[in-house]
TrEMBL record:
Protein name: Acyl-CoA dehydrogenase
Membership in a protein family: Belongs to the acyl-CoA dehydrogenase family.
Cofactor: FAD
Tree of life domain: Bacteria
Protein backbone atom coordinates (compact mmCIF):
# COMPACT_ATOMS: atom_id res chain seq x y z
CA UNK A 1 0.00 0.00 0.00
CA UNK A 2 2.79 2.40 0.90
CA UNK A 3 4.57 1.72 -2.39
CA UNK A 4 1.37 2.25 -4.39
CA UNK A 5 0.63 5.51 -2.59
CA UNK A 6 4.12 6.93 -3.13
CA UNK A 7 4.22 5.72 -6.74
CA UNK A 8 0.92 7.43 -7.52
CA UNK A 9 2.18 10.71 -6.05
CA UNK A 10 5.53 10.34 -7.80
CA UNK A 11 3.94 9.58 -11.19
CA UNK A 12 1.51 12.46 -10.90
CA UNK A 13 3.56 15.19 -9.25
CA UNK A 14 7.25 14.34 -9.16
CA UNK A 15 8.05 12.72 -12.53
CA UNK A 16 6.61 15.65 -14.57
CA UNK A 17 8.96 18.06 -12.77
CA UNK A 18 12.11 15.91 -12.89
CA UNK A 19 13.45 17.11 -16.25
CA UNK A 20 13.05 20.78 -15.26
CA UNK A 21 14.81 20.28 -11.91
CA UNK A 22 17.71 18.73 -13.85
CA UNK A 23 17.72 21.24 -16.72
CA UNK A 24 17.38 24.36 -14.54
CA UNK A 25 19.52 23.01 -11.69
CA UNK A 26 16.86 24.20 -9.23
CA UNK A 27 15.84 22.63 -5.92
CA UNK A 28 12.31 21.21 -6.52
CA UNK A 29 10.40 23.29 -3.95
CA UNK A 30 7.01 22.25 -5.35
CA UNK A 31 7.96 18.60 -4.89
CA UNK A 32 9.09 19.39 -1.35
CA UNK A 33 5.67 20.91 -0.61
CA UNK A 34 3.91 17.86 -2.06
CA UNK A 35 6.09 15.51 -0.02
CA UNK A 36 5.37 17.51 3.14
CA UNK A 37 1.63 17.46 2.40
CA UNK A 38 1.81 13.66 2.08
CA UNK A 39 4.09 13.39 5.16
CA UNK A 40 6.80 11.73 3.06
CA UNK A 41 9.58 14.32 3.38
CA UNK A 42 11.15 12.84 6.54
CA UNK A 43 9.16 9.66 7.15
CA UNK A 44 11.72 8.14 9.48
CA UNK A 45 11.24 10.73 12.27
CA UNK A 46 9.71 8.91 15.25
CA UNK A 47 6.18 9.72 16.36
CA UNK A 48 7.56 11.05 19.67
CA UNK A 49 8.88 14.04 17.69
CA UNK A 50 5.79 14.46 15.55
CA UNK A 51 7.02 12.30 12.67
CA UNK A 52 5.40 9.51 10.68
CA UNK A 53 7.54 6.93 12.50
CA UNK A 54 8.27 4.86 9.41
CA UNK A 55 10.66 1.96 9.97
CA UNK A 56 13.83 1.54 7.90
CA UNK A 57 12.19 -0.65 5.24
CA UNK A 58 9.25 1.72 4.80
CA UNK A 59 11.72 4.60 4.48
CA UNK A 60 13.63 2.65 1.82
CA UNK A 61 10.41 2.08 -0.13
CA UNK A 62 9.54 5.80 -0.01
CA UNK A 63 13.01 6.79 -1.23
CA UNK A 64 12.97 4.11 -3.94
CA UNK A 65 9.66 5.29 -5.33
CA UNK A 66 10.58 8.98 -5.27
CA UNK A 67 13.94 8.17 -6.94
CA UNK A 68 12.17 6.14 -9.63
CA UNK A 69 10.68 9.46 -10.74
CA UNK A 70 13.39 11.93 -9.73
CA UNK A 71 16.71 11.16 -8.05
CA UNK A 72 17.23 14.76 -6.90
CA UNK A 73 13.87 14.77 -5.11
CA UNK A 74 14.66 11.49 -3.36
CA UNK A 75 17.45 13.31 -1.54
CA UNK A 76 14.77 15.19 0.43
CA UNK A 77 13.73 12.17 2.56
CA UNK A 78 17.21 10.62 2.30
CA UNK A 79 19.22 13.62 3.50
CA UNK A 80 16.66 14.51 6.16
CA UNK A 81 17.40 11.05 7.49
CA UNK A 82 21.18 11.42 7.11
CA UNK A 83 21.21 14.74 8.95
CA UNK A 84 19.03 13.57 11.83
CA UNK A 85 20.25 10.02 12.53
CA UNK A 86 23.23 11.42 14.53
CA UNK A 87 20.67 13.03 16.85
CA UNK A 88 18.52 9.91 17.03
CA UNK A 89 21.57 7.83 17.92
CA UNK A 90 23.38 10.13 20.30
CA UNK A 91 21.74 13.47 21.17
CA UNK A 92 20.12 14.61 24.40
CA UNK A 93 16.33 14.48 24.59
CA UNK A 94 16.31 18.28 24.60
CA UNK A 95 18.21 18.49 21.28
CA UNK A 96 15.98 15.84 19.73
CA UNK A 97 12.80 17.68 20.72
CA UNK A 98 14.14 21.00 19.55
CA UNK A 99 15.49 19.93 16.17
CA UNK A 100 13.46 16.91 15.07
CA UNK A 101 10.00 18.41 15.48
CA UNK A 102 10.47 21.21 12.91
CA UNK A 103 11.83 18.61 10.47
CA UNK A 104 8.80 16.37 11.05
CA UNK A 105 6.48 19.34 10.44
CA UNK A 106 8.23 20.17 7.17
CA UNK A 107 9.41 23.54 8.46
CA UNK A 108 13.11 22.69 8.25
CA UNK A 109 15.46 20.34 6.45
CA UNK A 110 18.61 18.77 7.89
CA UNK A 111 21.97 18.22 6.17
CA UNK A 112 25.07 16.26 7.21
CA UNK A 113 28.50 17.85 7.04
CA UNK A 114 31.38 15.40 7.36
CA UNK A 115 33.49 15.86 4.20
CA UNK A 116 36.03 18.60 3.62
CA UNK A 117 38.10 19.69 0.60
CA UNK A 118 41.04 17.56 1.76
CA UNK A 119 39.17 14.96 3.82
CA UNK A 120 36.80 12.82 1.74
CA UNK A 121 37.41 9.08 2.05
CA UNK A 122 39.79 9.78 4.93
CA UNK A 123 37.10 11.63 6.83
CA UNK A 124 38.97 11.51 10.15
CA UNK A 125 41.66 13.80 8.71
CA UNK A 126 39.24 16.75 8.85
CA UNK A 127 40.55 20.17 9.89
CA UNK A 128 37.41 22.01 10.97
CA UNK A 129 37.96 23.06 14.57
CA UNK A 130 35.58 23.59 17.46
CA UNK A 131 37.19 25.34 20.41
CA UNK A 132 35.49 25.57 23.79
CA UNK A 133 34.96 29.09 25.11
CA UNK A 134 33.01 29.08 28.38
CA UNK A 135 29.51 27.73 27.70
CA UNK A 136 30.08 27.92 23.97
CA UNK A 137 32.09 26.37 21.15
CA UNK A 138 33.57 28.44 18.35
CA UNK A 139 33.71 26.65 14.99
CA UNK A 140 36.03 27.43 12.08
CA UNK A 141 36.52 25.49 8.85
CA UNK A 142 35.06 24.51 5.50
CA UNK A 143 32.79 21.54 4.89
CA UNK A 144 32.70 20.42 1.25
CA UNK A 145 30.05 18.79 -0.95
CA UNK A 146 27.17 19.29 1.44
CA UNK A 147 23.93 18.02 -0.06
CA UNK A 148 21.04 20.46 0.20
CA UNK A 149 23.33 23.11 1.70
CA UNK A 150 21.57 26.45 1.69
CA UNK A 151 18.09 24.93 1.58
CA UNK A 152 18.53 23.08 4.89
CA UNK A 153 18.02 25.05 8.09
CA UNK A 154 20.07 22.64 10.21
CA UNK A 155 23.44 20.89 9.82
CA UNK A 156 25.11 18.09 11.70
CA UNK A 157 28.72 19.24 11.64
CA UNK A 158 31.67 17.09 12.67
CA UNK A 159 34.63 19.11 13.99
CA UNK A 160 37.90 18.51 15.83
CA UNK A 161 37.74 19.35 19.53
CA UNK A 162 41.01 17.60 20.49
CA UNK A 163 43.63 17.67 17.71
CA UNK A 164 45.92 15.29 19.61
CA UNK A 165 43.36 12.46 19.67
CA UNK A 166 42.76 11.65 15.94
CA UNK A 167 39.31 10.19 15.31
CA UNK A 168 38.66 10.19 19.05
CA UNK A 169 39.12 13.97 19.09
CA UNK A 170 36.16 14.68 16.79
CA UNK A 171 32.80 15.88 18.11
CA UNK A 172 29.43 16.42 16.42
CA UNK A 173 27.35 19.61 16.66
CA UNK A 174 24.10 21.05 15.38
CA UNK A 175 24.75 24.24 13.42
CA UNK A 176 21.90 26.42 12.18
CA UNK A 177 21.86 28.14 8.81
CA UNK A 178 21.20 31.47 10.55
CA UNK A 179 24.05 31.19 13.05
CA UNK A 180 26.34 34.17 12.64
CA UNK A 181 29.43 33.24 10.60
CA UNK A 182 27.75 30.50 8.51
CA UNK A 183 27.89 30.98 4.73
CA UNK A 184 27.68 28.79 1.65
CA UNK A 185 29.91 28.35 -1.40
CA UNK A 186 28.50 28.51 -4.94
CA UNK A 187 26.50 25.52 -6.19
CA UNK A 188 28.79 22.83 -7.61
CA UNK A 189 28.25 22.26 -11.35
CA UNK A 190 27.55 18.55 -11.43
CA UNK A 191 27.01 15.66 -13.85
CA UNK A 192 23.75 14.61 -12.20
CA UNK A 193 21.36 15.11 -9.27
CA UNK A 194 21.32 18.69 -10.46
CA UNK A 195 18.08 19.49 -8.62
CA UNK A 196 19.86 18.95 -5.31
CA UNK A 197 22.26 21.78 -4.43
CA UNK A 198 25.75 20.68 -3.39
CA UNK A 199 27.70 23.50 -1.72
CA UNK A 200 30.42 24.21 0.76
CA UNK A 201 29.36 25.14 4.27
CA UNK A 202 31.82 27.75 5.46
CA UNK A 203 32.16 28.32 9.20
CA UNK A 204 33.86 31.52 10.32
CA UNK A 205 33.95 32.05 14.09
CA UNK A 206 30.54 30.41 14.48
CA UNK A 207 29.76 30.64 18.20
CA UNK A 208 27.19 28.10 19.37
CA UNK A 209 26.05 26.96 22.83
CA UNK A 210 27.93 23.92 24.14
CA UNK A 211 24.52 22.25 24.57
CA UNK A 212 24.42 21.86 20.79
CA UNK A 213 27.05 19.14 20.95
CA UNK A 214 25.57 15.78 19.94
CA UNK A 215 26.64 13.25 22.58
CA UNK A 216 29.91 13.48 24.49
CA UNK A 217 33.11 15.23 23.40
CA UNK A 218 35.21 12.96 21.19
CA UNK A 219 32.35 10.70 20.09
CA UNK A 220 31.52 12.59 16.88
CA UNK A 221 33.44 10.38 14.44
CA UNK A 222 31.90 7.20 15.82
CA UNK A 223 28.46 8.80 15.62
CA UNK A 224 29.22 9.84 12.03
CA UNK A 225 30.21 6.28 11.05
CA UNK A 226 27.36 4.67 12.99
CA UNK A 227 24.99 7.01 11.12
CA UNK A 228 26.34 5.83 7.77
CA UNK A 229 25.56 2.24 8.79
CA UNK A 230 21.89 3.27 8.64
CA UNK A 231 21.96 5.72 5.77
CA UNK A 232 24.04 3.82 3.22
CA UNK A 233 20.89 1.72 3.06
CA UNK A 234 18.94 4.79 1.93
CA UNK A 235 21.48 5.52 -0.82
CA UNK A 236 21.03 1.91 -1.91
CA UNK A 237 17.30 2.68 -2.05
CA UNK A 238 17.94 5.74 -4.18
CA UNK A 239 20.05 3.63 -6.57
CA UNK A 240 17.31 0.97 -6.79
CA UNK A 241 14.74 3.63 -7.61
CA UNK A 242 16.83 5.19 -10.35
CA UNK A 243 17.49 1.74 -11.85
CA UNK A 244 13.81 0.75 -11.67
CA UNK A 245 12.84 3.97 -13.42
CA UNK A 246 15.28 3.26 -16.24
CA UNK A 247 14.25 -0.40 -16.57
CA UNK A 248 10.54 0.46 -16.63
CA UNK A 249 11.07 3.12 -19.27
CA UNK A 250 13.16 0.79 -21.43
CA UNK A 251 10.56 -2.01 -21.12
CA UNK A 252 7.87 0.29 -22.46
CA UNK A 253 10.08 1.58 -25.24
CA UNK A 254 11.23 -1.76 -26.68
CA UNK A 255 7.62 -2.87 -27.13
CA UNK A 256 6.78 0.26 -29.13
CA UNK A 257 9.91 0.83 -31.21
CA UNK A 258 9.97 -1.15 -34.46
CA UNK A 259 12.99 -2.05 -36.59
CA UNK A 260 13.31 -4.76 -39.23
CA UNK A 261 9.50 -4.90 -39.33
CA UNK A 262 8.94 -5.86 -35.68
CA UNK A 263 9.17 -4.50 -32.15
CA UNK A 264 12.78 -4.49 -31.00
CA UNK A 265 11.54 -6.39 -27.91
CA UNK A 266 11.35 -9.44 -30.20
CA UNK A 267 15.14 -9.58 -30.55
CA UNK A 268 16.59 -12.08 -28.14
CA UNK A 269 19.77 -10.01 -27.78
CA UNK A 270 17.70 -7.27 -26.16
CA UNK A 271 15.57 -9.71 -24.15
CA UNK A 272 18.73 -11.06 -22.54
CA UNK A 273 19.81 -7.51 -21.64
CA UNK A 274 16.41 -6.87 -20.04
CA UNK A 275 16.57 -10.13 -18.10
CA UNK A 276 20.04 -9.29 -16.77
CA UNK A 277 18.93 -5.79 -15.79
CA UNK A 278 15.93 -7.11 -13.84
CA UNK A 279 18.01 -9.87 -12.23
CA UNK A 280 20.71 -7.46 -11.00
CA UNK A 281 18.08 -5.04 -9.73
CA UNK A 282 16.16 -7.68 -7.79
CA UNK A 283 19.35 -9.12 -6.25
CA UNK A 284 20.38 -5.65 -5.07
CA UNK A 285 16.85 -4.97 -3.80
CA UNK A 286 16.80 -8.09 -1.63
CA UNK A 287 20.21 -7.23 -0.16
CA UNK A 288 19.00 -3.68 0.54
CA UNK A 289 15.84 -4.91 2.26
CA UNK A 290 17.89 -7.31 4.39
CA UNK A 291 20.16 -4.39 5.36
CA UNK A 292 17.08 -2.27 6.14
CA UNK A 293 15.75 -4.98 8.47
CA UNK A 294 19.09 -5.00 10.30
CA UNK A 295 19.13 -1.19 10.46
CA UNK A 296 15.69 -1.19 12.04
CA UNK A 297 16.71 -3.74 14.68
CA UNK A 298 19.83 -1.74 15.52
CA UNK A 299 17.90 1.53 15.74
CA UNK A 300 15.67 -0.12 18.31
CA UNK A 301 18.63 -1.11 20.45
CA UNK A 302 19.31 -4.71 19.39
CA UNK A 303 23.03 -5.18 18.72
CA UNK A 304 23.43 -6.28 15.08
CA UNK A 305 27.03 -7.16 14.46
CA UNK A 306 26.79 -7.48 10.68
CA UNK A 307 24.91 -4.20 10.05
CA UNK A 308 28.11 -2.44 8.93
CA UNK A 309 28.80 -5.19 6.38
CA UNK A 310 25.24 -5.30 5.10
CA UNK A 311 24.81 -1.56 4.71
CA UNK A 312 28.07 -1.24 2.78
CA UNK A 313 27.24 -4.31 0.68
CA UNK A 314 23.76 -2.99 -0.13
CA UNK A 315 25.02 0.47 -1.10
CA UNK A 316 27.79 -1.00 -3.22
CA UNK A 317 25.64 -3.64 -4.95
CA UNK A 318 22.69 -1.34 -5.60
CA UNK A 319 24.80 1.53 -6.93
CA UNK A 320 26.88 -0.73 -9.20
CA UNK A 321 23.64 -2.32 -10.45
CA UNK A 322 22.08 1.12 -11.02
CA UNK A 323 25.06 2.25 -13.08
CA UNK A 324 24.99 -0.86 -15.27
CA UNK A 325 21.21 -0.84 -15.65
CA UNK A 326 20.98 2.84 -16.59
CA UNK A 327 23.80 2.51 -19.15
CA UNK A 328 21.95 -0.45 -20.66
CA UNK A 329 18.68 1.51 -20.68
CA UNK A 330 20.32 4.22 -22.78
CA UNK A 331 21.59 1.49 -25.11
CA UNK A 332 18.11 0.00 -25.47
CA UNK A 333 16.74 3.35 -26.62
CA UNK A 334 19.54 3.77 -29.17
CA UNK A 335 20.15 7.35 -30.36
CA UNK A 336 16.95 8.56 -28.69
CA UNK A 337 18.26 7.37 -25.35
CA UNK A 338 21.23 9.69 -25.77
CA UNK A 339 19.01 12.77 -25.96
CA UNK A 340 17.29 14.83 -23.29
CA UNK A 341 13.95 14.12 -24.97
CA UNK A 342 13.94 10.84 -23.03
CA UNK A 343 14.58 10.42 -19.28
CA UNK A 344 17.12 7.59 -19.36
CA UNK A 345 20.18 9.77 -20.00
CA UNK A 346 19.28 11.78 -16.86
CA UNK A 347 18.91 8.54 -14.92
CA UNK A 348 22.33 7.39 -16.14
CA UNK A 349 23.92 10.66 -15.01
CA UNK A 350 22.07 10.53 -11.68
CA UNK A 351 23.08 6.91 -11.04
CA UNK A 352 26.80 7.75 -11.07
CA UNK A 353 26.74 9.66 -7.78
CA UNK A 354 25.43 6.63 -5.91
CA UNK A 355 28.81 4.96 -6.49
CA UNK A 356 30.59 7.98 -5.01
CA UNK A 357 28.78 9.52 -2.06
CA UNK A 358 28.26 8.17 1.43
CA UNK A 359 31.65 6.62 0.82
CA UNK A 360 32.93 5.58 -2.61
CA UNK A 361 32.44 1.97 -3.60
CA UNK A 362 36.16 1.42 -3.03
CA UNK A 363 35.60 2.55 0.57
CA UNK A 364 32.58 0.24 0.87
CA UNK A 365 34.91 -2.60 -0.11
CA UNK A 366 37.45 -1.43 2.49
CA UNK A 367 34.66 -1.48 5.10
CA UNK A 368 33.40 -4.92 4.04
CA UNK A 369 36.90 -6.41 3.97
CA UNK A 370 37.66 -5.05 7.45
CA UNK A 371 34.48 -6.67 8.74
CA UNK A 372 35.41 -9.99 7.12
CA UNK A 373 38.97 -9.99 8.41
CA UNK A 374 38.46 -8.79 11.96
N1 LIG B 1 30.03 2.44 13.83
C1 LIG B 1 30.55 2.95 14.97
N2 LIG B 1 31.88 3.10 15.18
C2 LIG B 1 32.69 2.73 14.16
C3 LIG B 1 32.22 2.21 12.95
C4 LIG B 1 30.82 2.06 12.80
N3 LIG B 1 30.31 1.57 11.68
N4 LIG B 1 33.26 1.93 12.15
C5 LIG B 1 34.37 2.27 12.84
N5 LIG B 1 34.01 2.74 14.05
C6 LIG B 1 34.91 3.22 15.11
C7 LIG B 1 36.15 2.37 15.23
O1 LIG B 1 35.95 1.30 16.12
C8 LIG B 1 37.17 3.35 15.73
O2 LIG B 1 36.98 3.51 17.13
P1 LIG B 1 38.24 3.71 18.13
O3 LIG B 1 38.83 5.04 17.79
O4 LIG B 1 37.62 3.69 19.47
O5 LIG B 1 39.19 2.58 17.86
C9 LIG B 1 36.77 4.66 15.07
O6 LIG B 1 35.38 4.52 14.74
C10 LIG B 1 37.54 4.97 13.81
O7 LIG B 1 37.40 3.85 12.95
P2 LIG B 1 38.51 3.46 11.89
O8 LIG B 1 39.85 3.39 12.57
O9 LIG B 1 38.05 2.27 11.14
O10 LIG B 1 38.50 4.78 10.99
P3 LIG B 1 39.33 5.17 9.69
O11 LIG B 1 39.88 6.54 9.90
O12 LIG B 1 40.26 4.07 9.31
O13 LIG B 1 38.18 5.34 8.56
C11 LIG B 1 36.54 4.68 6.96
C12 LIG B 1 37.28 4.40 8.28
C13 LIG B 1 35.66 3.48 6.77
C14 LIG B 1 37.48 4.77 5.78
C15 LIG B 1 35.72 5.96 7.11
O14 LIG B 1 36.55 7.11 7.19
C16 LIG B 1 34.74 6.17 5.98
O15 LIG B 1 33.67 5.61 6.01
N6 LIG B 1 35.10 7.00 4.97
C17 LIG B 1 34.16 7.40 3.93
C18 LIG B 1 33.54 8.73 4.28
C19 LIG B 1 32.10 8.77 3.93
O16 LIG B 1 31.41 7.78 3.80
N7 LIG B 1 31.61 9.98 3.80
C20 LIG B 1 30.22 10.19 3.54
C21 LIG B 1 29.86 11.62 3.62
S1 LIG B 1 28.11 11.85 3.61
C22 LIG B 1 27.65 11.88 2.00
O17 LIG B 1 28.35 11.52 1.12
C23 LIG B 1 26.24 12.44 1.78
C24 LIG B 1 25.33 11.89 0.82
O18 LIG B 1 25.47 10.82 0.36
C25 LIG B 1 24.13 12.61 0.48
P1 LIG C 1 38.79 10.91 -2.47
O1 LIG C 1 38.70 10.43 -1.08
O2 LIG C 1 39.86 11.88 -2.82
O3 LIG C 1 38.88 9.64 -3.43
C1 LIG C 1 39.42 9.70 -4.76
C2 LIG C 1 39.51 8.26 -5.28
O4 LIG C 1 40.42 7.50 -4.45
C3 LIG C 1 38.18 7.52 -5.23
O5 LIG C 1 38.05 6.66 -6.34
C4 LIG C 1 38.30 6.69 -3.96
O6 LIG C 1 37.47 5.55 -3.99
C5 LIG C 1 39.76 6.33 -3.98
N1 LIG C 1 40.28 5.98 -2.64
C6 LIG C 1 40.48 6.82 -1.58
N2 LIG C 1 40.93 6.13 -0.54
C7 LIG C 1 41.03 4.83 -0.91
C8 LIG C 1 41.44 3.61 -0.28
N3 LIG C 1 41.81 3.59 1.00
N4 LIG C 1 41.41 2.48 -1.00
C9 LIG C 1 41.00 2.48 -2.29
N5 LIG C 1 40.60 3.59 -2.95
C10 LIG C 1 40.62 4.74 -2.27
N6 LIG C 1 29.78 14.64 2.10
C11 LIG C 1 29.15 15.04 3.25
O7 LIG C 1 29.74 15.05 4.30
N7 LIG C 1 27.86 15.43 3.22
C12 LIG C 1 27.11 15.45 2.08
O8 LIG C 1 25.93 15.80 2.12
C13 LIG C 1 27.75 15.04 0.87
N8 LIG C 1 27.06 15.07 -0.31
C14 LIG C 1 27.74 14.88 -1.48
C15 LIG C 1 27.11 15.15 -2.69
C16 LIG C 1 27.80 15.05 -3.89
C17 LIG C 1 27.12 15.37 -5.18
C18 LIG C 1 29.17 14.65 -3.88
C19 LIG C 1 29.96 14.55 -5.16
C20 LIG C 1 29.78 14.34 -2.69
C21 LIG C 1 29.09 14.46 -1.48
N9 LIG C 1 29.71 14.26 -0.25
C22 LIG C 1 29.10 14.65 0.92
C23 LIG C 1 31.12 13.86 -0.21
C24 LIG C 1 31.36 12.41 -0.56
O9 LIG C 1 31.03 11.57 0.50
C25 LIG C 1 32.85 12.29 -0.96
O10 LIG C 1 32.97 12.89 -2.24
C26 LIG C 1 33.33 10.87 -0.96
O11 LIG C 1 33.34 10.34 0.34
C27 LIG C 1 34.73 10.74 -1.60
O12 LIG C 1 35.62 11.69 -1.12
P2 LIG C 1 36.50 12.57 -2.15
O13 LIG C 1 35.56 13.15 -3.12
O14 LIG C 1 37.37 13.47 -1.37
O15 LIG C 1 37.37 11.52 -2.93
Amino acid sequence: MLRETVRALADEKIAPRAAAADENEEFPWEVYKDLVAADLHAVHVPEAYGGAGADALATVIVIEEVARACASSSLIPAVNKLGTVPLLLSASEELKQRYLTPVARGEAMFSYALSEPEAGSDAASMKTRAVRDGDHYVLNGTKMWITNAGVSEYYTVMAVTDPSAGGRGISAFVVEKDDEGVSFGPKEKKLGIKGSPTRQVILENVRIPASRMIGEPGTGFKTALATLDHTRVTIAAQALGIAQGALDYALGYVKERKQFGKPIADFQGLQFMLADMAMKLEAARQLTYAAAAKSELAMNGTPVKDLTFFSSAAKCAASDAAMEITVDAVQLLGGYGYTRDFPVERMMRDAKITQIYEGTNQIQRVVMARQLLK
